[in-house]
Amino acid sequence: MAKLKILNRQTDEETLRKVSREVTEITPRIHTLLDDMIETMRGADGCGLAAVQVGVLRRVVVIETPEGLFEFINPKIIKKSGVQVGHEGCLSLPGESAVVKRPACVTVRALNRDGEEIEVTGFDLLARAMCHELDHLDGILYIDKAEK
Ligand code: NI
Predict the structure, then answer these.
(1) Rounded distance from Cα 115 to ligand 1 centre (Å)
(2) Model pLDDT, residue 1
C-alpha cells in the first residue's frame, strides 16, 4: 500500500471539478487504488475519500465510520429520507468546515471489490459521508451546498 497525495482545492480545483468515469472492469489496479485510498484516508485522519481527490477520475470511494470500512465502486444513491444539518469538512479543503444540510438516511448501491452488488444504508455521519463522497464523483464540493 502507498499513501497518495491528496489534491487541494487551492491548487487543484480544476481536477476536483471533473466528473469521474464509471469503472468498467475491476482490475488489480482498482484493488491497489482502493488499498492506497484507505491508507491515504487513514493517514489524513479522514472518514471518506473519493478517487478524484488523489487525481484518479474513476467512480471509486472509500468511507470509514464507526459502522465500519466501506469500499464503493460505481456507487449510486437509491434512497434517501429525512434531513440532518451539521458541520462538514473535506480533506481537499484542510482546516475549513461549514454547515451543510443532508438527508438523515441514505441507501447506496454499488459494487464491492469482488464485483458483487452491495447495498448499504447509513444514518447520521455515514449518510453524510456517503452524500459528500458521491458528490465528489460529479465534481461537487460541500461548499457548493453549504448554508450561507
Ligand atoms: Ni471531500
Answers:
(1) 25
(2) 79
The CA 84 to ligand 1 mean position distance, Å, reads 18
Task: Taking residues 77-88, report their average pLDDT.
Answer: 98
Contact between 106 and 135 (Cβ < 8 Å): no
136 falls within a domain:
yes
| 133 catalytically annotated | yes
- The domain total for the chain is 1
Domain assignment present for 13: yes
pLDDT of residue 148: 79
Q: Which of 25, 71, 133, 147 is catalytic?
A: 133
CA of 75 relative to ligand 1 center, distance in Å: 16
* Residue 3 within any structural domain of the chain: no
Q: What is the dihedral of CA 119, 123, 126, 131, to 10 degrees?
A: 80
- Rounded distance from Cα 25 to ligand 1 centre (Å): 25
Structural domain harbouring 84: 9-144
- Residue 43 sits in a domain of what CATH number? 3.90.45.10
Mean pLDDT of 127-133: 98
Identity at 107, one-letter amino acid code: T
Residue from 50, 131, 21, 24 nearest 86 by CA:
131
